[in-house]
C-alpha cells in the first residue's frame, strides 16, 4: 500500500512538473508570435513602379514575410475593387490573376493585355488586424516605332538607302525588330548589299541597302515586337539628283508637276499651283534627270522675274 501511494505521489509530482513546463513553453511561443518582428511584413526589395506596354502582360510582385495563416489580397485603389484574394480572382475581369507558388513569399498580380485605362495604383493587402498594405504604381503606355527623317525619301540611284528605326516608350528592349518592304519581310537573299544592325539595348535598328536601284523603291516598314510599326516611302531616282533631294531628304513643301503639261505662258499647272498656294517670292525649280517633272519648292508668289 505504501509503495502504491508512493508511486501515485511520484506520478502526481511529475504531472505537475510537466504541466508547468508545457505552460511555460506555450506562453513563450505565444509571446514569440505576439512580438512585432514575427508578424507579417513586406519585403521592400520588390519594384514598386512598373511600366508595361499595351498588349504585353504586366506583373506586380508583392513579397510578404511571416505570412502564417493570413491571406493576401490585391485591391485596385481608384475604386477599392477587390481583384484577388489568395489565388482566387474576385472580379469579372478575367485579365486579373494572382500567381503564387506554394511555400513562396511572393504573390504576383498579373494583368493580361493591359490597356492605358489600367494605369494607376494597386495595393497588396494582408489580412492582419489592423490590415497592412503596400502600394504599387502601374503605368501602361503605347509603344510606337519611329523611322528617323522624313516620311518620304528621294534617293539617287547608286546611293545607299539608310533607314534608322527607334522603338519609343518601350519599357524593355524589343525581342526583335523586323523590316518589311510592302507586306513582305525584307529579303536578304534576293539581292546582295542588304544589312540590318539591331541594338536591343538602345532599341534601334538600322537598315542599309547598298547601291540602291529603282526596283528598291517602295514602302518600308519597321515593326518592333510590342510596338506599333512605322513606315517610310522611298523613291530611287535614276540619273542626276535634284538639289532638293540631296542626302535622301525631300521638302515637306515641295510639289512635283508634270513637265510635259508645264506652260510658261500662264496656262499650265504651275500657275494653278502658284495661285492655289498664294504666290511666290522664292521659287526654286529643279529639273529631274528624267525630264518628266519639275520640283517646285518654297512657293509663295506668282511666277515672274527671278522666279523661273
From TrEMBL:
Report the InterPro entries cross-referenced here.
Ig-like_dom, Ig-like_dom_sf, Ig-like_fold, Ig_sub, Ig_sub2, Ig_V-set, Zig-8
Stored SMART domains: IG (SM00409), IGc2 (SM00408)
Query: Which GO annotations describe the biological process of this protein?
Result: synapse organization
| Domain Ig-like: residue ranges | 40-127, 130-233
Query: Which PROSITE patterns does the annotation name?
Result: IG_LIKE
Q: Which Pfam families match?
A: Ig_3, V-set
One GO cellular component this record assigns the protein to is: neuron projection membrane
Q: Which Gene3D superfamilies match?
A: Immunoglobulins (2.60.40.10)
Superkingdom of this entry's organism? Eukaryota
Protein name as it appears in the record: Ig-like domain-containing protein
